[in-house]
# Entry
Amino acid sequence: MENLTKQLARIIDVGTRRNPLPMKKGNSIRVGIVAIRYSTNKGYLLFDCEHSEHICLAESKPGALAIAKIYNAQQDLHRAVKADKEYAKHENDCVFFEHVIENTADNFKADLAQVRLEISQAHKRSAYVVLETLIFT
# Structure
């Protein structure tokens, strides 16, 4: 029986090293050796806890998780950073266009903002799909 528990513990240990699970600890999220902390002024700060150094700055939570996962796998971060910036840009555009639609009296402006809102939402969804793919693969 003791042998089975040791084997199970070893299987779990090897599995979580290969695919680290995000854990919330205090005001940060830990993914492997990466700590993610949210700052209201800057966004999501990513730190390497093993080497005590700053990795990068992410603008969205899905982007931060994707960057952390790729950093733990020791791969190139460029694709995740680019998708994160695109996601954040279109998120801000959506907020702006919704504000224009709610507060304008001009129907032409409202229709134009509605079209741009739909385009921005589509771009935001596609960037989110890229980030989700990076997180779950």
The chain is about 60% helix and 20% strand. The mean pLDDT is 89.
